[in-house]
Amino acid sequence: MQEEANMPNDRNTIGGEPSGHWQDVPSHGESYRDDPQRHDLTPQRGQDNANLIYILYLVNIAVPFLGLVGVIMAYSARATAAPDLRSHYDNQIRIFWLTVIGYFVSVVLMFVLIGFLLAFAVFIWKIVRVATGMSLLARGQPVRNAESLSFTSE
After folding, report:
1. 92, 134 in Cβ contact below 8 A?
2. Please, which residues have CB within 8 angstroms of residue 61's CB and are 6 or more apart in sequence?
3. Is a pLDDT exceeding 70 seen at residue 49?
4. Nearest in space to 137 (alpha carbons), one of 65, 79, 61, 81
5. Quick one: which of 33, 100, 101, 121 is 20 to 30 A from 8 by CA?
6. For the CA atoms of 42, 45, 50, 52, what is the dihedral angle to 10 degrees?
7. Which position has the higher pLDDT, 99 or 38?
8. Domain ranges of the chain
9. Inter-axis angle of helices 43-59 and 83-109, to 10 degrees?
10. For the whole model, what pTM was predicted?
């Protein structure tokens, strides 16, 4: 009984010291966002993930539904991302939804022929926003105006 009283309560310890492997995992109800020093993605891995989502958006032009995969990835990675990287995930989510809305409005307006021009404008807007986001990501800079409807993300 005495021995049990001296044993640490933490199951992830070896000889009373944290083992190192599980000490960085947040406990129930805690988030990586609570501590800016703790993020589950290393900066390079997170940057690769964000870049992959931008690539999925570009390939989505030829392969349907890859944009949907990209936005799901962005939503799942956003909560645990560092603030600079989070701005890219916010930008990607916004690109997805504004593109969906833009194409929906375009389809409705195709009956009066202006929809074709709007669809082309949405297509160009998406490519420019993705390219600008990729450029900022490569330079390690956050997206400053993700909420904007402008063509550039800088």
Report:
1. no
2. 123, 127
3. yes
4. 81
5. 33
6. -170
7. 99
8. 43-138
9. 10
10. 0.69
Tokens of 25: 């995992």
How far is the C-alpha of 49 from the C-alpha of 41, rounded, in Å? 9
**Predicted confidence band at 42 (pLDDT cuts at 50, 70, 90)?**
low
Q: What's the pLDDT score for residue 46? A: 78
Tell me what pLDDT residue 153 has.
61
pLDDT computed for residue 7 by the predictor: 47
Q: Which amino acid belongs to residue 131? A: A
Amino acid identity, position 31: S
C-alpha 101/C-alpha 99 separation (Å) is 5
Report how far apart, in Å, the C-alpha atoms of 58 and of each of 36, 62, 124, 130 are.
31, 8, 11, 7
- The backbone torsions φ and ψ at residue 128, rounded to the nearest 5 degrees and listed phi first, read -65, -45
- Tell me the C-alpha distance between 151 and 129, whole Å: 6
